[in-house]
Amino acid sequence: MQRVSCGCFWDRSQSVYTAENISGILQALVEREQWGPAITRARLVRAAGEDGARVIGRALYDCVQM
Predict the structure, then answer these.
(1) Using one digit for the tens of pLDDT, what is the confidence trace for 13-65?
(2) Is the pLDDT of residue 2 over 80?
(3) Backbone phi, then psi, for 18, in 5-degree steps?
């Protein structure tokens, strides 16, 4: 699993988080190694909606530390 820059990730995805969905989003992100990309994406869609999951996925992609 590649490391993600936390500052970069937060800057690019903070607009998605609400009091109602933050727990589900963080749970999906913490368990992403266990479940793999397809299930993680489905869990993010359930927690944050399609647009929110897209923002989070893009932030993960953009903020991978090389």
Answers:
(1) 999 999 999 999 999 999 988 998 899 999 999 999 999 999 999 999 999 88
(2) no
(3) -130, 170
Number of CB atoms found within 10 A of residue 16's CB: 20
The residue length of the chain stands at 66
Please give the full DSSP string across the chain, using - where no structure is assigned.
Answer: ---B-HHHHHHHHGGG--TTTHHHHHHHHHTHHHHHHHHHHHHHHHHHHHHHHHHHHHHHHHTB--
In this structure, the dihedral spanned by the alpha carbons of residues 66, 9, 24 and 15, taken in order and rounded to 10 degrees, is -160
